[in-house]
Structure formats: C-alpha cells, structure tokens
C-alpha cells in the first residue's frame, strides 16, 4: 500500500508529464517528485502567454533533464522506459531495473502513430525527432510519395514538401476535415499550387524549438520519443529529389485497399490492369479504384494512446479509442493513478463548447490540472474542473495562415440544428461562425482577422445575436467596438 512518505511519480517527459511534474515539484518543495521517461530530452513550456481568456501561446523547448532538475531540486528525472505497473502495490518498474513506490502516479506516456500497416519498411509514420529525420532522409531521394490521412500532420506535410510529387489520399470529401469544413478547404487549396507556396508570409503562432545538441536522440527503445509539435518541420528541409517544385494530386473519399511490394505488384492482377504505372519501390491500391507507384508511403492516420505497459495485471477502464478513461479530476479507474495528455480520454460530460483533441495545448492544460487534482487530494481539498475545459480554443498555422479554432468550430455534435455565417476574401481570410438558436457556438478564423477575442467573448457569454444577422461579419463594422 501507499505511504504518505512515498513520492509523486510521473511517467512521460512530453508536455503533459513535464508540466505535471513541475507543478507538483513547485507546490510540494519538500517532497520528492520522480519523472520517469523513455526519452533523453524533456519538453518544457517557455514564454507562456495567455492571449485571451482561453487562448494560449507558448514555445516548447526540448531540454536535457538536468535543466529541469536544476530548476526544482526535489524533482528527479529518470531516463528509462516503464515496463511494469502494479497498481495494488503502488509500484512501477523501469527497464533499467529500478522500482518506484508512489503515493500518486500520473501516466503521461503520449501516443504513437496509428500506422496503416506494421513493419512495412515502405510505410513511415511521423512522431518524434527520429522519425522526422528518417522521413527527411527518405524524401531527399524520392520523386513521388503517397500521403495517407487528413489531420494536422498530413496538412502540414503536403504544404511543406518541395521537389517531390505528392499523391494525397483522404477519406473525406474535403482536405483538413479534422479542422475545417469544405468551405475552408476550398479557401486553402490554392495554396497548394507550387508557385503559391509562399513560406515568407509572417505569421504569429506557437513556436516549437529543439535543442540542437540533443536533436536526433530518442527513447532507448526507439519508439517512445515525445511527439513533435507545431513547426516541427522548421529548419528541416523537406525536399525531394526533383528540381522542379512539387505537384500535389488529391484522391478524395478513399482509403488504402492494399500495399504491394515491387515484386508482388508485378505478379498481381493490378499490374495487368495498370501496366503503365512504371517502376517504383512500392505500389498503393486505393478503394476508389486508383493505383499509384511511389517511393514510400506516409501514414498520417491518427494516433493510438501508449497504454500497453500499464495494462497487464491491472484493471484500467479504456475508452473506445483505447485511451485511459479519466474522470473530471483526471483520475483513471485505478486508485491513485491519474493520466493526462494524449494517453488519456476524458470520461466526463464535457461543456457544450469543448471537445478533446489530441493537441499540444490540451496536453499542457491536462498535465497542469492533473497535478492540481493530485495535490488537492493529498491536501484533502476540493477542486473544480478548470476553466480551460469550458471552451475549446486552439491557435495554429496551416498553409502559412494563422488559424484560430473556437468552440464547436465544425458544428461538432450539432446535427442540423445550426446555421453558418461565412466571410471569405480569397488569399486573405476565411471567417466562419457557427450559430444555434441565435447564439454563437463556434468559429474558424483563417488569416489575420483579429476577431478571436471578440468571438471568444460572444461564445462564452452566449449573448443572443439574432438581431445582428449577417451584420455580425460585415467587414465595414468594427465588431470589437460594437460589443464593447
Ligand atoms: P508526448 O509528447 O508524446 O510525450 C510522451 C512521453 O512519454 C515521451 O517523453 C515518451 O518518451 C514517454 N513515454 C512513452 N511511453 C513511456 C514508457 N513506457 N515509459 C516512460 N516514458 C514513456 N499539436 C498541436 O497542438 N499543434 C501542432 O501543430 C501539432 N503538430 C504535430 C506534428 C507532429 C508531427 C506530431 C507527431 C504531433 C503534433 N501535434 C501538434 C500534437 C502534439 O505534439 C501532442 O498532442 C503533444 O505533444 C502530446 O503531449 P503528451 O505529453 O501527451 O505526449
């Protein structure tokens, strides 16, 4: 059983784990906090800035663990993968043979790419510094690649790649379905034309930096490095083997039916039907009947929470997406075990304006809130669900445009019960608001509209906007003054 003298133990040196460990170490300066992590570098948040009530910006730096230990003398970082968890005994064991008893444990082990197929050398996933470098190396010799997936990573990749033809296979009717509707996708598509890929446009966004001295190292087991984040490709040249700029060809509403090696392909019926596909290291057959040869395939089809080492012998409740289910105090179903970041799935009834998305900002918020909940339980205090879970908000950048997403930005879960107002100036901005019963429930702001704070307030205060109608997006009205 746990004793009060046992330390707090956190697993995972990504944003969730480090934020959680820092918060506990500063709140309990005379208690020991252990951070056990598979990766040699830890991710720390710097230059945190609360942009508005819920929008936040920060830089992320990969640092050696000594920097963290220097800041908090009671925080010890152990670089070793956790192999075993025995919740009844309140102990974890690491690959290097060390055993740690805990009074409270927080699992922040992140997630790994959901690959189209395991152990196929022609299929790459991008997750950490190592996999990004492998991708860059393979790309430098490639003339054509197939990118499968429609989330943030696929969007960034397709935009950033130069000197290589990209076949982009998505299962939806429009690009970026995770973040945008078809209208926003139409606004962004011209940016994919080779001569439009203007990377010099200024753009405010959270910066991600890596410590150059440590870049390239990852977890000892090679698979457990921290997830990359915004701007992961900055300073990494994503250039293929062709001199000319890249061409992107989209295949909509399809998935991968089958992947063929060169040898299998030439013996297959697909070769007989598509004899003009040419010589490539690998071939992809899509469910829409199309087939392509390519140098390799990037699988950017989401992530799977890293729960494996913790499940054996324990009784964790898992969500449908295999995340550790947590309650509104970030507690898993096992006593004294909390979870935060990508490894967990919320099990509470969320606010009507918030949804979980496996993003950078939520990893930080969950890590911080989990630490406060752990502390509250130890101190026998009560704690309310943090305000950050009230309204979904995210600032990022796609295709060099600043992108702000608020609330039910894609009318998630609203069925037909909503209307949309859209303002679009080609090449400059795309503004969409989601209204239901005259109240604003969400917004997508692409470009420098500067409307985020006003819209955030309108969403939070749920003011009845019926009488403003389309005037709400009239560019000649200074909406900020209007609602002041
Ligand atoms: P991670 O950062 O993955 O950290 C998990 C930690 O756990 C790692 O240190 C790992 O080594 C450790 N670990 C795992 N298993 C074990 C074990 N058994 N024992 C010990 N340690 C273990 N988000 C955005 O908001 N905006 C973006 O633009 C964006 N771009 C992205 C681009 C890429 C290529 C990728 C991969 C992700 C991107 N994300 C982005 C997502 C974002 O990076 C993640 O949501 C966030 O980093 C998750 O943080 P985390 O702490 O939960 O997990």
Automatic annotation (TrEMBL):
Residues 8-161, 282-367 form the FAD/NAD(P)-binding domain. Its cofactor is FAD. Belongs to the class-I pyridine nucleotide-disulfide oxidoreductase family. PYROXD1 subfamily. Keywords: FAD, Flavoprotein, Oxidoreductase. Residues 395-462 form the NADH-rubredoxin oxidoreductase C-terminal domain. It holds the Pfam family Pyr_redox_2. Probable FAD-dependent oxidoreductase; involved in the cellular oxidative stress response. Required for normal sarcomere structure and muscle fiber integrity. It comes from Triplophysa rosa (Cave loach). The keyword GTP-binding does not apply. Signal peptide: none annotated. One of its GO terms (molecular function) is oxidoreductase activity. This is Pyridine nucleotide-disulfide oxidoreductase domain-containing protein 1.
């Amino acid at each position: 059983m746990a004793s009060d003298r046992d330390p707090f133990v956190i697993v995972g040196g990504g944003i969730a784990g480090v934020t959680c460990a820092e918060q506990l170490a500063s709140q309990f300066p005379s208690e020991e906090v252990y951070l056990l992590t598979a990766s040699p570098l830890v991710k720390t948040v710097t230059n945190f800035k609360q942009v508005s009530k819920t929008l936040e910006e920060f830089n992320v730096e990969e640092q050696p663990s000594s920097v963290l230990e220097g800041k908090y003398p009671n925080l010890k970082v152990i670089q070793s993968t956790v192999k075993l968890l025995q919740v009844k005994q309140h102990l974890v064991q690491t690959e290097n043979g060390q055993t740690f008893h805990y009074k409270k444990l927080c699992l922040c082990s992140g997630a790994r790419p959901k690959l189209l197929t395991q152990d196929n050398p022609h299929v790459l996933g991008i997750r950490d510094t190592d996999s990004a470098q492998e991708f860059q190396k393979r790309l430098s010799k490639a003339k054509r690649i197939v990118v499968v997936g429609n989330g943030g990573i696929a969007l960034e990749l397709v935009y950033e790649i130069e000197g290589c033809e990209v076949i982009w296979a998505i299962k939806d009717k429009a690009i970026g379905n995770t973040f945008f509707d078809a209208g926003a996708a139409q606004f962004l598509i011209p940016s994919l034309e080779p001569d439009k890929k203007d990377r010099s446009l200024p753009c405010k966004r959270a910066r991600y930096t890596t410590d150059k001295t440590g870049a390239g190292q990852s977890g000892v087991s090679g698979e457990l490095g921290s997830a990359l984040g915004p701007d992961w490709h900055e300073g990494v040249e994503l250039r293929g083997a062709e001199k000319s700029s890249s061409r992107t060809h989209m295949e909509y509403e399809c998935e991968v039916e089958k992947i063929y090696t060169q040898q299998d392909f030439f013996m297959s019926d697909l070769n007989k039907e598509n004899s003009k596909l040419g010589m490539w290291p690998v071939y992809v057959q899509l469910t829409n009947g199309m087939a392509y040869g390519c140098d390799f395939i990037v699988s950017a089809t989401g992530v799977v929470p890293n729960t494996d080492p913790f499940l054996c012998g324990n009784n964790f409740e898992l969500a449908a997406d295999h995340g550790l289910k947590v309650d509104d105090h970030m507690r898993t179903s096992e006593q004294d075990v909390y979870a935060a970041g990508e490894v967990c799935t919320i099990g509470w009834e969320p606010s009507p304006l918030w949804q979980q998305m496996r993003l950078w900002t939520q990893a930080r918020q969950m890590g911080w809130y989990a630490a406060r909940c752990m502390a509250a339980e130890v101190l026998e205090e009560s704690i309310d669900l943090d305000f950050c879970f009230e309204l979904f908000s995210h600032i990022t950048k796609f295709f060099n445009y600043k992108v702000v997403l608020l609330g039910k930005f894609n009318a998630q879960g609203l069925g037909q019960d909503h209307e949309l107002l859209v303002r679009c100036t080609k090449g400059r901005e795309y503004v969409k608001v989601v209204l239901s019963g005259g109240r604003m429930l969400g917004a997508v702001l692409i470009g420098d509209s500067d409307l985020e704070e006003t819209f955030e307030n309108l969403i939070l205060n749920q003011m009845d906007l019926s009488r403003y109608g389309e005037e709400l997006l009239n560019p000649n009205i200074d909406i900020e003054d209007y609602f002041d």
